[in-house]
Amino acid sequence: MQKDANVSNKKIVILGAGESGVGAAILAKEVGYKAIFVSDSGKISDKYRKKLDAHQIEFESGGHTESKILDADEMMKSPGIPEENFLVVKIRANNIPVISEIEFAYRYKGDSKIVGITGSNGKTTTTSLIYRMFELAGLDVALVGNIGFSIAEQVALTPKEYYVAEISSFQLDDIVTFRPDVALLLNITPDHLDRYDHKFENYVEAKFKIAENQIATDYFVYNEDDPVITERLKTFPLKSIPLPFSMNKEIKKGAFIKDDQMTLNSTSENVSMSIYEFALKGKHNQYNTMAAGIASQVMGIRKEKIRDAIKTFNSLEHRMEPVATVRGVEFINDSKATNLNSVWFALESMQQPTILILGGIDKGNDYSLLLDDVKAKVKAIVCLGLDNSKIHAAFDGQVPNEIIDTDNMIDCVNKAFALAESGDAVLLSPACSSFDLFKSYEDRGTQFKDAVKLL
Q1: According to the annotation, is 122 in a ligand binding site?
Q2: Mur ligase C-terminal domain location, by residue (predicted)?
Q3: CA triple 314-126-257, angle to 5 deg
Q4: Is 289 known as a binding-site position?
Q5: Could you say which of 114, 142, 196, 372 has the lowest number of CB atoms within 10 Å?
Q6: How does pLDDT run across 274-288, given as a tens digit for each residue?
Q7: What is the pLDDT of residue 346?
Q8: Which alpha helices (H) appear in 350-406, and where do they start and end?
Q9: In this predicted model, what pLDDT tens digit does every residue of 369-426 receive, in sequence order?
């Protein structure tokens, strides 16, 4: 990686020593910042300590040295740190520029192309499916971003011609020049409103930042059936080429599904394919598949490779992941469903009577949005959380069985299994974050799978 003369006399401070923070620190070292300082208020994992030591990067953990931090010329903060954080407030007051990791990586990505995917739901699945299409096409590609791999570290150490990046609203909050060649906006439903002053319009604006720097030769792939997106597009100053996808109408340029047949027509090489050939099942995955197909088409991937990827793509861990069938009862791990819209999509795809596991840290959920599907498909609800009062308020008397409370996974799975009969499904799709009882949604999903194996 070439050194950048513009930063040879600058100090960058990085708040947070997780995947994005350590990746940014490595990139800063590679491009030649005069000084780099990484600060984390908690414990830094051994994996990241070793990386920082290997690259001779100064860091601290278990607290912040304000004098060192406020001496920065530039600040990169990890996406999980909110604006209300006392240090961020001081940094802003000192007029220190704050950027995100994707903004930092974008500066040094060279001629590489970026496909950026955002939305309230389906980001990980769509990002992974696009990556699979690129892989099958033999492209020099990396899977990066919110999916768990630092784009900055990739750019620094093993640069690629293409980056397929899952991007959260938090990562978009601090961009300045970041511009994906292809931007995908899958859907927008209320989520993370605690980070946006509890104003949905602020969250919508954050999502649309993925397209704000695009130019006339870029592509904007979006869900034509999402009323929030289509309403905002009426006034959004879009400069890139719009490519919508829809199940409600035929699209002249983009993608649509009609009579169970998907058509991708964003280029001259049309792709036509039955939805029954899709490896990923469910209406939500039909949307994800259309979006991925458009992105791959405009990047020049041949239709044979697109079709192959759609037919063979395996479902992701913790996202409608089949676990096992025990005495005729199917167990499905959808632990990644941390908001209501994800649960709605999960229930839409269920074909058998369902015991639904809900609960965790509520993010302001209005459970009435699930009521029709719960009445139609759910025979019992097992709560898994420390405070299940809102779930009881919404669904007591709405399902055939009494709602059961649990506070550990073994008990939860055993009680769900006791309520099930052969031909039923037990679905872990919590609608809440996991941090009351678990380290992460991955930990919650893994414990679910381990508990099922004990039955």
Answers
A1: yes
A2: 318-432
A3: 95
A4: no
A5: 372
A6: 999 998 888 889 999
A7: 86
A8: 371-377, 389-395
A9: 899 999 999 999 999 999 999 999 999 999 999 899 999 999 999 999 999 999 999 9
**Closest to 21 (Cα-Cα) out of 70, 80, 62:** 80
- Per-domain residue ranges for the chain? 7-98, 103-312, 321-453
pLDDT score for 317: 79
Segment 350-379, tens digit of pLDDT? 889 999 999 999 878 889 889 999 999 999
Phi then psi dihedrals of residue 128, to 5 deg: -70, -35
Q: What is the mean pLDDT of residues 10-16?
A: 97
Beta strands in 147-254 (DSSP E): 162-166, 182-185, 219-223, 241-246
* 1 pLDDT tier (thresholds 50, 70, 90): confident
pLDDT at 192: 62
Do 161 and 141 contact (CB within 8 A), yes or no? yes
Q: Domain 7-98 has what CATH class? A: alpha beta
In 7-22, which positions are buried (b, 16+ CB within 10 angstroms) versus exposed (e)? beebbbbbbbbbbbbb
DSSP state of 80: T
Burial class (CB in 10 A: 0-12, 13-18, 19+), 90: middle
Bridge pairing between strands 113-118 and 219-223: unpaired
Strand partners, 378: 354
Distance CA 434, CA 250 (A): 40
282 annotated among ligand-binding-site residues: no
pLDDT at 62 over 90: yes
What would the CATH number be for the domain defined by 321-453? Answer: 3.90.190.20
314 assigned to a ligand binding site: no
Annotated ligand binding at 125? The verdict is yes
The continuous run of DSSP H or E covering 50 comes out as helix 46-54
pLDDT of residue 235: 97
Residue 194, pLDDT > 80, answer no
CATH topology of domain 103-312: UDP-N-acetylmuramoyl-L-alanine:D-glutamate ligase (3.40.1190)
Q: Is 246 annotated as ligand-binding? A: no
Helices (H) and strands (E) in the chain, counts: 17, 20
How far apart CA 245 and CA 264 sit, in angstroms, is 9
381 in helix, strand or coil? strand
pTM value surpassing 0.85: no
DSSP 378: E
